[in-house]
Amino acid sequence: MGILDWILVAIRWVHALAAVAWVGGSMFYALVLRPVWRRSNPGQEVSRAVGTEFRSVVTSAMAVLLISGTVLTVSRLTSKGATLPYVAVLVVKILLAVYMFYTVWVWHRPSKASDPDVAEGRWRRARRRLAGTNAVLITGVVVFGLADVLDALFERGLAR
Predict the structure, then answer these.
(1) Taking the domains of the chain in order of start, what are their residue ranges?
(2) Looking at 43-47, 83-87, 117-121, which range is the least confident one?
């Protein structure tokens, strides 16, 4: 293995760590922290502090994923292992990742004013379902799975 191969391994490792931090942190929030908060009601200040800290993790992960993902995409698409099925799955993975980035960046921004007294309409319910924490988590798990599919397709493409 040459130095470029080692650099790509390091980039893949950093890419995977960023994905684990985001998706794993989201799983912890959804499966552990949120249920505990519902039972214990920690208060607005604690909730806001945890949200701020996790947002910084997600923002950092997004930056790392964008940079490393671009490098890895160019590397793989310029290789002979990039078959048509590989490209098709990669496009789906990228579209889902863009959806996650957009959702977090636009819909999950901290709001300055809370409106708990506003009646929830159809649009707000639909938005909560499509852009809520659970939707982002499920999409992240799917993107994680697609990474394994891409590896298998790439290896198959190289074997030809």
Answers:
(1) 3-159
(2) 117-121
